Amino acid sequence: MHCYRDLVNYLSCGMILAGLWHLVHHRKTQTSYGRHMRLSSPAKTVPARLAWFLQEMPALLFPLLLMLTSHTPSSMGKYLLLGTFCIHYFQRTFVYSLMTRGSPYPLGVMVAAGLFCSVNGFLQGHYLLHCAQFDEEWSAGYRYKTGLLLFYIGMAINVHSDYILHSLRKPGEVVYKIPKGGLFEHVSGANYLGEIVEWFGYAVATWSLPALSFAVFSLCFIGPRACHHHRFYQEKFKDYPKLRKALIPFFF
Ligand SMILES: NC(=O)c1ccc[n+]([C@@H]2O[C@H](COP(=O)([O-])OP(=O)(O)OC[C@H]3O[C@@H](n4cnc5c(N)ncnc54)[C@H](OP(=O)(O)O)[C@@H]3O)[C@@H](O)[C@H]2O)c1
């Protein structure tokens, strides 16, 4: 397949605009799932495990399909980068979805997230395999190494924090408790902080517009959500740790 450069640029810019749009339009309310589900608008729901499995799967399948069908010679560095993207979505699709004890998930949000994951999976895979031009020294360079290091540190924080959240509930329970341990000692949105670090690390490693767009989108989508979670905890728990911040330790 040849490189559809215009499509890559349109999709990347569209993703940044979608993130900014979300930032502006969701200052007061958050996307309606989990604790921010609006009860005034009854929606069809899907069990959380099924929803996360189905919505995240396309972001794994598209890059894998592109890798299998690509006839363009690609460097090991490109495969490592795309493999890194796939590791995240393998974890989300097969591990996160099995572990979650989340409340039922709105069907509309699941469909929208699934479409987003499809577009993003295609965009990142197509760009890396068919458009990116990394020279042989790229994977020995400091950007590549620093970016990947950031990615894996972020992923470790994200996975560990999500594990802490899952462990707060007994099977069948739908209550909110104060998360403790790991980066939750410093911020209410520890899992979101990890995810944001991951995608900015990935953007540094690939040094590409599509990866930067996804990092910006993630920041705009889950950054404000961390603030809403923080406010929720402060209102719900009188003994909520006073020094804990929303997203950035000691700062914000
Ligand atoms: N890259 C992106 O743009 C993007 C966008 C969205 C999500 N994500 C990632 O997807 C993952 C899940 O996102 P999310 O928005 O669902 O995260 P979340 O609101 O923190 O919830 C994660 C899970 O833990 C449960 N939970 C959260 N706080 C709890 C508490 N205090 N007590 C008991 N259970 C609690 C939630 O249950 P309930 O569902 O019942 O609240 C849910 O099952 C995160 O790792 C996030 O980074 C990424």
TrEMBL record:
Domain 3-oxo-5-alpha-steroid 4-dehydrogenase C-terminal as annotated: residue spans: 104-252
Lipid bilayer topology: Multi-pass membrane protein
Localization: Endoplasmic reticulum membrane; Microsome membrane
InterPro entries recorded: 3-oxo-5-alpha-steroid_4-DH, 3-oxo-5_a-steroid_4-DH_C, SRD5A/TECR
Single GO MF annotation: 3-oxo-5-alpha-steroid 4-dehydrogenase (NADP+) activity
UniProt record similarity statement: Belongs to the steroid 5-alpha reductase family.
Name of the molecule in the record: 3-oxo-5alpha-steroid 4-dehydrogenase (NADP(+))
